[in-house]
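Quarterly update from the structural biology core.
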Amino acid sequence: MSDNCIFCKIVAGQIPSTRIYEDDDVLVFHDIHPVANVHFLIVPKRHVESLLTATPGDQVLLGKLLALAPQLAREQGLGEGFRTMINTGVKGGQSVFHLHLHVFGGGGKAEAAISQIMQ
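Predicted structure, tokenized:
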């Protein structure tokens, strides 16, 4: 755990979150600033700063994050499709330096804007 990391504090239960899934390796909770009607984060419990600092030893964990995305997206009502995003590094838009996978969809103003940009 990193002492100054907000996600480490959420994992430790020091900061509340709306949890939707948890196992030994990951915690999944709703984003407090959603960009879509459904927006949650898949966060490894072990502190990994970003994809830039991930190592080959993180391969199984990284695969687990991606494998959980469709399962949890379906459970949250996104069975027809969703977006995933990992912001990496300052220049990649990362603001919390604890690796996390955004899963979002189901409409919403920001999601509509993202759709236009990405086409």
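The radius of gyration is 14 Å.
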